[in-house]
């Protein structure tokens, strides 16, 4: 009996056996809970980007048509106005410039996009020299402006000046032309008198230049491509709505084409912001 009690006491004094340590060959992930599952991926933005680029393509096509056949894009104001047709061609050139900038996007980085913007401006100015010959506009100032744009573009690319110089030039020059079309005509030394329709289209000409500046400013801010597209389309919509609501009636031109253009641009802008 005593032996049994001693044996029982001895067993109670023996510490319980520890669990065997895991083998060093055990996979590490077996010792830890599984990692949390990855959050569900966002809906792909590829379809929206594709639609936005379709909008840019339509924009560029419209500009090309205005350049090649300006009378087809001329507001239906009697009688036919040759000076207005000449300015429509100039507007079309800047529309093509905007579309090309939007398609190039921020490839190469912000500085590359900003410098490319000024290179495109220089090319557009040179392309417009024959168009402005209708008004006998002096060529020296146009060629000088093109060289200045190229020089500033090179300085931006080297990092010598801020990329914001590019959108600032576009926006300031475009705004000045938009708000002062008659003073702009005097500055350009046009030899032919402009009709009220031509003056209104000269404002649109400035508005398109400023719209290029809006897009380049968004690129300089490193915004997403969709946001940059949305800003440019919104500016284009505002330009179209403004002309339709403030100019078309007094000129005897139909409002519907400009309103449709504004609505289409607003739709693409909304697509980019969604």
From TrEMBL:
Taxonomic superkingdom: Eukaryota
Residue intervals passing through the bilayer: 54-74, 86-105, 161-179, 199-220, 227-244, 256-273
Presence of keyword 4Fe-4S: no
Annotated stretches, region: Disordered: 17-44
Alphabetical UniProt keywords: Membrane, Signal, Transmembrane, Transmembrane helix
Keyword Transmembrane helix among record annotations: yes
Name by which UniProt lists this protein: Uncharacterized protein
Signal sequence region: 1-19
């Amino acid at each position: 009996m005593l032996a049994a009690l001693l044996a029982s006491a001895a067993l109670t004094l023996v510490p319980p056996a520890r669990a065997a340590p895991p083998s060093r060959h055990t996979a590490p992930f077996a010792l830890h809970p599984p990692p949390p599952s990855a959050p569900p991926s966002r809906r792909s933005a590829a379809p929206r980007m594709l639609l936005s680029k379709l909008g840019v393509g339509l924009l560029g096509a419209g500009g090309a048509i205005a350049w090649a056949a300006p009378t087809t894009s001329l507001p239906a104001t009697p009688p036919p106005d040759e000076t207005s047709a000449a300015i429509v061609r100039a507007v079309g050139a800047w529309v093509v410039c905007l579309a090309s900038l939007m398609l190039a996007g921020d490839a190469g980085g912000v500085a590359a996009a900003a410098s490319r913007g000024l290179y495109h401006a220089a090319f557009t100015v040179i392309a417009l020299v024959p168009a402005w010959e209708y008004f006998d506009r002096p060529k020296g100032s146009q060629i000088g402006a093109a060289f200045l744009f190229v020089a500033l573009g090179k300085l931006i690319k080297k990092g010598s000046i801020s990329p914001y110089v590019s959108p600032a030039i576009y926006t300031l020059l475009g705004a000045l032309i938009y708000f002062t079309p008659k003073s702009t005509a005097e500055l350009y030394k046009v030899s032919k008198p402009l009709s009220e329709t031509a003056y209104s289209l000269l404002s649109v000409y400035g508005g398109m230049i400023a719209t290029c500046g809006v897009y380049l400013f968004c690129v300089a801010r490193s915004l997403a491509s969709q946001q940059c597209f949305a800003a440019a389309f919104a500016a284009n919509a505002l330009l179209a709505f403004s002309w339709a609501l403030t100019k078309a009636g007094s000129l005897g031109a139909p409002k519907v084409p400009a309103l449709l253009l504004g609505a289409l641009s607003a739709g693409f802008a909304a697509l980019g912001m969604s």
